[in-house]
Amino acid sequence: MDILTKRPRGTEDKLPKEIYKWHTVEKIAADTAEAYGCKEIRTPTFEHTELFQRGVGSTTDVVQKEMYTFDDKKGRSITLKPEGTAGVVRAAIENGLFNDALPLKTYYFTRCFRYEAPQSGRLREFNQFGVEVFGAPSAASDAEVIALANDVINRLGVKNISLEINSIGCPTCREEYHKALIEYYGKYKDKLCDTCLERLEKNPMRLLDCKSEICGSLKSDAPKMLDYLCDECKEHFESVKRRLDALEIAYTVNPLIVRGLDYYTNTVFEFISNEIGSQGAVCAGGRYNGLVEEIGGSPLAGLGFAMGLERIIMVMDNQKLDFAQEKGCDLYIASFDEETNIYAMTLAKKLRSQGFWVEFDTAGRSFKAQMKYANKINATYCMVIGSDELANGSAKLKRMSDGEELPVKLDDGFANRLNTLIMDISL
Known about the structure:
Helix content: 25-40%
Distance between the termini: 48 Å
Structural class: alpha+beta
């Protein structure tokens, strides 16, 4: 196949016949976020590379191996965003959003880019729904953000999703934990992959996130962060669990969750599906109390999550869930010649201005071909405009589902009549 007509590896086309699925998920996600007081934010597709190096972490797989980075025409290093959080923090600092009433609650839909081996549920260009909340350090905010994600999943109708949570503490209690990890993994240096050998001294928690078979086999017996939490972090985590219990949100504590980005602190969580292979996390997030300061702002608590839209739609397809069908064509106006086609065009313009989806012939089709086209686009009604209809100011609406014909006047009340007929069908 010619490269000009083949999409790049690791990307997908979202085709018109499937886009209603995306509209369904996006509307439910946005409506849910807004019910929690979140406002939409949109950030650039690319940022300065340094933002992700400092924010995401220079020792993460994302920064070391997966970012799409290039120099622009003035030699500045630019990166296509690999995740959404850092860009939101940058935007909030630059635009003074943290000077407004706190907590600041935001949500977004964004495309992200990571150079990974494509497989089911993992693409190089992918879409995320994300929520970021700033200025809310209490456990109540952790529980609320998890509840928001849980509500989106429930409103979509998705079943068999399990919530796993953990705490990875604060920098103070992690210092002792890092020492324990270094001591444990130091006994297996001859078995570690090259990447983990490099991370052992710099960022030992990254070893728990390694996907290699040998390193992965070692983490089950590795020290657990929960055993090293300071009193404050321990109480925060216990408070999160109490609130999830009060909300009747089922969860399990998984001490091996560390997340793949360096900015996380305290609570981390993942919503897992066992129906999409190894890429089972459909939503993940946590708290990142040091990220705003790391990027250049004043110290401010933050937390959030990202939901993979391709993955959640894949689960919905597997479970054969219903998506809200897109609005169909309300009326097709068939014509015979230039005069009647011009009338069809002007009538279509008037009806479209009142919210109807109206089509007429723009391809020079014969009358017979126009009727076939009306069937193909699943028009609810079809109306034929000929010289007699123009002269009489009246026509017949044909209901395409059963062929019933209804006489109508082509006057100012036509739009109201058409709307009533369409509403009757929808009921």
